Amino acid sequence: MWLFAVIAMLCWSGSDIFSKIGSPQTEKTSHYKVGIAVGGIMGLHALYMIFIEKIPFSLMDIVHYLPASFFYIVSMVVGYVGLRYIELSISSPICNGSGAVSALLCMLVFGVTFNPEFDGNAIYLNGWIIAGLVLVIGGILFLGIVDSTEDPELRALRQQKANRKYTKSLWAILLPVLYCVLDSLGTFVDTLIAEGYVERIGNEDLAGDVMNTAYELTWMIIAIAFAIYVFGIKKEKINKKFDGVKLLGSTCETVGQIFYAKVVVSGYIPGLVIISSYCLVSMVWSAIFLKEKLSWKHYLCLAAAILGILVLGYFDV
After folding, report:
1. How far apart are CA 72 and CA 157, in angstroms?
2. Which of 58, 85, 194, 258 is the most exposed, fewest CB within 10 Å of its CB?
3. Residue 114 phi, psi (nearest 5)
4. CA-to-CA distance for 146 and 176, rounded, in angstroms?
5. 3-class SS at 256?
6. Cα 67 from chain centroid?
7. Phi first, then psi: what are they for 126, rounded to 5°?
């Protein structure tokens, strides 16, 4: 499982960097094109699961799983829009904070149990989890304050060697935060839907495959709609320089999801910590390929958020 966790981590960080590189600031339809690539790759995997693996899938599963698919897909499209407005080094950790928000939602709705030691309960609190939640949410909030109040001249100075320049914008910080909220709502709804699938199918692993296939087919339908709009209505052409990179990012996203599911099903908690650190790897790729450089205040807030993510990952929140 350790190897599967590392593969998922590398794939999701690869999805981050490839999607970012494939989304130039001047291409206003880049989020649609990334969505086309994601939906296309996911659709192929869904068809493989249905016709090759022969999972017990029905078209009604698309409808039953639609509430979760809606939040997941909208959050991802919002995230793809945000790639044009802010450094990946900032947006990736904010987006990855959705686990903390979904944990809070579950605790508010279902209530919590305080357990000093981890005992496998789905909803519980201890000192470490409280600290993790505070670090993630506090780090994200202060990161937004730091980025929105940064002096324009200092921003321009630190971006001198970067491949892209960004101006102060409300959208810049709002879009990844919106992704975080929407994705956490998807996770919350997912937990409500999952129990019914497990009861109906009688196998937790197989139920997960059916739900994921429903999600992937929904993405494929959205991708077809995006393609009609971009290539049919807008009459845009395929950009060989950027669209191929989008396809790489989409492939990484799908492969990462496959291995992530395997780690979750196995119950290998250290693997969840490894996967949760993918935003750290994304920051490394950003520094190498995009030449991104942040202020010490940015890094301090990011360090707090990422530490919280790792803590929550260890406790499987």
Report:
1. 36
2. 58
3. -90, 115
4. 15
5. helix
6. 17
7. -145, 180
| Average pLDDT rounded to a whole number, residues 46-62 | 94
Paired residues of 125 in beta bridges? 114
* C-alpha–C-alpha distance, residues 94 and 309, integer Å: 10
Task: Record the tokens describing residue 131, joined without a space.
Answer: 């600290």
Q: Hey, is 65 helix, strand or coil?
A: coil
Nearest to 292 by CA among 166, 103, 206: 166
The token duo for 30 is 């880049």
CA distances from 207 to 68, 80, 87, 204, 212 (A): 15, 29, 37, 5, 9
> First vs last Cα of the chain: how many Å apart?
18
Q: What is the mean pLDDT of residues 180-205?
A: 83
- pLDDT at residue 272, as a whole number: 67
Whole-angstrom distance, CA of residue 185 vs CA of residue 98: 9
Phi and psi torsions of 125, nearest 5°? -130, 145
Rounded Cα–Cα distance for residues 255 and 15 (Å): 10
Determine the distance from the C-alpha atom of residue 107 to the mean position of all C-alpha atoms in its chain, rounded to a whole number: 21
Region of 300 on the Ramachandran plot (φ > 0 left; ψ -120 to 50 alpha; else beta):
alpha
Among candidates 70, 100, 8, 91, which has minimal Cα distance to 290? 91
Token pair of 205 as six digits:
């692993």
Q: What pTM did the predictor assign? A: 0.84
